[in-house]
Amino acid sequence: MFGYYLDLALHSLKRNRVLTALMVMTLALGIGASMTTLTVLHVLSGDPLPGRSGQLYYPQLDPRDMDGYHPGDEPMAQVTWVDGMNLLHAARADRQALMTGGAVPIQPADSAIDPFYEDARYTTADFFPMFQVPFLYGHPWSGADDEAHARVVVLSRGMNDKLFGGKDSTGQTLRMNDAAFRVVGVLDSWRPSPHFYDVNMGNYSDSEGVFVPLSASRDVRLSRNGSIDCWGKGGGDDDHIETSPCVWLQYWVQLDTPAKASAYKEYLTHYVQEQKALGRFQRPPNVRLRGLTEWLDYNKVVPSDVRLQMWLALGFLLVCLVNTMGLMLTKFLRRRGELGVRRALGASRRAVFAQLLVESGIVGVVGGAIGLLLALLGLWIVRRQPSDYAELAHLDASMLLITLVLAVCASLAAGLLPSWRACQIAPALQLKSN
Amino acid sequence: MQIRPILATLRKHRIPAILIVLEIALACAVLCNAVFMISRRVASISLPNAIDEKELISVSMHGADPTRAAADIPRNLAALQGIAGVQAAGVISSLPLSTDNWGWSFGTQPDSVLEDRSSDQNTNVSLYMMAQGTERVLGLRLRQGRFFNADEYPGSLIGSGALPSTHVTVITESLAKKLWPGQSPLGKTIYSKPAYFTVVGVVADVLRPRLFGSDGLRSYHSSFFPMGPDQALANYVLRCPPAERERILREAVQKMQALNPSAVINGNTYEAIRNRYFADTSSMAWMLVLVCAVMLAVTAVGIVGLSSFWVTQRRAQIGIRRALGATRGDILRYFQLENFLLVGIGILLGMLLAYGINLFLMAHYELPRLPMLYLPAGALALWLIGQGAVLGPAQRAAAVPPVVATRAA
Predict the structure, then answer these.
(1) Which helix (H) or strand (E) holds B179?
(2) pLDDT tens digits for B333-380?
């Protein structure tokens, strides 16, 4: 029976090519536009570290003085040097890393390459195992290197390609800011998206090209970028930043079980009480321990333009659906005569309904396929845009499936009302009028 | 022309009528909001900026030895001035829309401290530090007071601190209005304990390195400070005839790289800096324009489809009316009026929907209320499209000969 309906449907679609083309194109445009924006949204709100993100937490403290205090205020979004170092050395979590971002002038040994600036991350040894960073050559530096203020550096794959032609560069020397650093490791391709560990540095920017121990970066005064927030007599001047009342570091911990997470939160509260007893902190304990995804939501990392675009595209899809519905109604009701004959010859209402639904299903499949091509075109255009998330816009398997399902559902939804209306036709009346 | 027979017909053909109304309502709602978003983006892209944008080139230099700034800066400036075609050269800490923002909060009371910034007491201001003569290179337009005197430059340095060690400043008109509404800003002082700066001049509005908020008002909170040879002066600006910009830019970058081999040099025309800042905004605006155009086309196609179906269905009825003496014009006007009524109902619904969508967007995104003007404008656009789309089918209806009435069953 399905085969017969298919045959009938194809026959009828061929009879009025312009109308068929209009229906298919309308549906395809709606699907193409909404799939493009949904894919961008899907990519941007994705999990940066699948499998690990559930165990990563971002502790927040409130080390400010009582000026401007309101109960219920959010604690600060970063930590001070003193608190960061205290928490790091206490090592109460399974893993922990303290970090900040910056940009370093790189002075290549190869004089053919002009000096250039590269984004850098100054961090501590656990950064690499905690974030499951893949290594191509060498290995991360150790906790002992952090303590010894070792002048070592880990390069990204792209940076290694640029500076050392992609060869194993471990053991080589790299000059940055007029100081020599020894390469200990080279990363494999790694681009967590969103750039979750520092939301001040461009939420979807590429990961940094060089990684340097935090202690060594302070010794040679590598320049710091990102957000800094000071209070009291805090100046944020780079030479005294370790002792200033300023927050400028991100602190991440890995806690393998929920029990450990709640224990860690308790530990943070104790820490604050202890600091209050010492006179360093003044405000009542106010700690947060947000998980990675919660932290990203809290910081609203997905650009609001992208969400606006998605709403707009869904509105557009709705407009397209209503129009397709109108066109299908036109098409089906034009065939009253033919449908009347089928009904008079004994086809049940249900059979006519099924036949018309098959026809709208075909429009849906073809419209979905063209919509998919339009979505690919749309994503290609998005990738040519200047925003830092642009190059991430690719269709993956799950979105491909969603596109096809959406297309068929949309066209069936569009076909439902016209098919129902058309199968209400009284056979006798139609036969008489023709 | 009577409306009652039209309404009676529409009652008999409820589904197509409802579909047309729905098409128009949805299109109207999405269109009003999309056009509103486009206009806001266009407004921010075209924010005025009182410097001579077309004549400026910027060459930035980072990573030079800070201890040699006193020797390097005059040497670099002299070299840049030597390039054929360069009318003037200066150096400044940052440029409007360069995203390299040096911001600080100031109050108008002597005991204002930095951390009041969350309260309404203080205003966040962007700082531009510049060497002597740079105001002429940029083409800053003085409105009141004076620019800095020659003796105010050499002693003003910043080093690794946060604020320059001078006590004079020149601010923009918008900032003056914000700090001292209705008063003359000349001689007034801004404070951030222990620093203080006295306003000696007011210039026409210059944008900040980074815009804040979407209202455009805070985007002009800029201030200028004199500066001696200091590493903070990292953006060399050249003034030259627009036609020669590209050549001069190439030469300037080459010259600077040769003079400062270990530094990182970047050259851009000011127009490129501005375009890059707004690149995202303008691509979003173009996307919105595209969506609106396609949506209107789709709606028009939908109306053409439904009306022509309608005409076919009512051939017999039209034939009878023609046989009873209705002219072609009567038939044409009948379909036009019918479309006008349907679109009208659609627009009415669409306006309510547009308003609802706007309320939703206001609650979730930083978007102001939809101005009332958009609603009649959207209505007019849809009426025009509706009339345009129905014209073809209506003409075909008018062409139905009266003889059809005698043939039909």
Answers:
(1) helix B173-179
(2) 988 998 999 999 999 999 999 999 999 888 887 778 888 888 888 889
